[in-house]
Every structure is written in structure tokens, then in C-alpha cells.
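We emphasize that the prediction below concerns an isolated chain of 257 residues; any contacts that depend on oligomerization or on bound cofactors are therefore not represented. The input was used exactly as deposited, without trimming of termini.
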Amino acid sequence: MAQQICQNCEAVVETWQRFCGSCGAVISRAPAGPVETLYFEADSTTGKAKLVVIRGDSTGASYYLTGDEYLVGRTQGTILFSDDTYVSPRHATFSYRDGKLLVADAGSHNGTYLRIRQPIPLRDGDTFLAGEEVLRFNLYRPSAKGASTDEEYCGTPLRPWRMQITQILDGGFEGIVHPSRRKSLTIGREACDVNFPLDRYMSGKHVRIEERDGQFMLVDLDSRNGTFYRLTAGSEAPLQNGDHVFVGRQLLRVDII
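Result of the prediction step, given as a C-alpha cell string:
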């Protein structure tokens, strides 16, 4: 029988159900086909872990990770998302080391994002995802002065700021740019320092950037859909049961078996 994923609690429900049996949420949309469990080997019945697509091209599909390493990509790898143009040909890898599951970006164009469980430090130029907004964090840098002349252009006086948030739009263009002189900055849908009222995946108060002893930290504010941090290309991050990873437009949940 066809199944789908509850968008509220991620439980698997039958398509005929009007309400989720786990959380009671209204089930408003069903996928075109049944949930499919995909195996990489013909005789595989169990694995060390599995990836479940909870939002994307094949919502509900499960990929059992029975080997040592798996490449995810659009045209190369064991796990393919061929219709997602935001996925690079070689995008990310999932591998085991010392009994632990790791994820690493494979030098993808759009990056691999991991949902944060606790506050993490931010570096100049780091990118994170809140709701559907891709945001870049920058520290203050004095503006370079142009060539010396006898006269100067008159404009708004420049005032130093501590940090700056820049919205990255499709195509790599910059959208909203918000510099801040304060030690903390809150981002959300409403009543925040930076607001995205039309983003339905953004919580009212979603995420905060705050300075602690000279280090800026990214802090999720118990948002419904979480805050995701872009992994540095080539670096590995350990995964726990229930972690969420964005690869292109595909949101994957990690289930440790």
C-alpha cells in the first residue's frame, strides 16, 4: 500500500489517512508513487544505517548503507538524484570509520548542509540555511579607499559594523544585506532583526548569531525545521541517529540501525 512522510513529525503514514497517527497533523498531500526501499546489493536486507528522503524528488525512499562508502551525485555515484539540478555530478559522500557514519562534501557547487544540534562557531564567509534562505556570514572589514584625488564623493558616512548577513539568491546573486553593530542578531519570519515574512519554512524566531568571548556562534532557536550549516569542502562530520542533511534540494534523514 502507498505511503508518505508526515511533514510535521516525519512519521510514515498510509496515503488514505487524513491525519497522522503519531502527531495528529492533517495529511494534505500524497506522493505520486509508493514509498520505496532501495538496496545496493541484491541480497541486502539490513544495513548499518539508512538515508530516508523526507523532502525531495522521491519522498519516502530509503537507501540502506551496507558498505563502507557511498557517493551521492546527479550523474555519478551509488545514490543518484538525476532530476535535481542543484545536485553536483559528484556531491557528497557517506562513509564509515571506526564504526561511525561520516558525511563529507565532495567539492559540490551548492554545498552539503548538516542540521545543527547545538551552537557552533562561525567563521568569516561561512554559509548557513534557515527556512529556504541561504545566508552568508561575514565579519567587518574596512572598505578599501579608491585612488587619491582632490575631491571626495559625498555619501552616507561609513560606520564600522561587527558582522553582516547576506542573502544568496538563485544564480548566486546577493539579495538582502544586513550589517549589524550589535553583539547578537536574530533571524526569523517576524519581529526579528532580519525578517523573511514570506518564507513558510521559517519559524517566527528561527536562529540567532551571537558573540561569545570574541567568537560568533550560530544558535538555533528551537525552530521547527532547523538550521543547517554548510560543510567545508573535504571536511568530514560525524552523524547521529536522526540527523538531517541537505544535498541540493533533497532533505535526507539519517536512521542508525
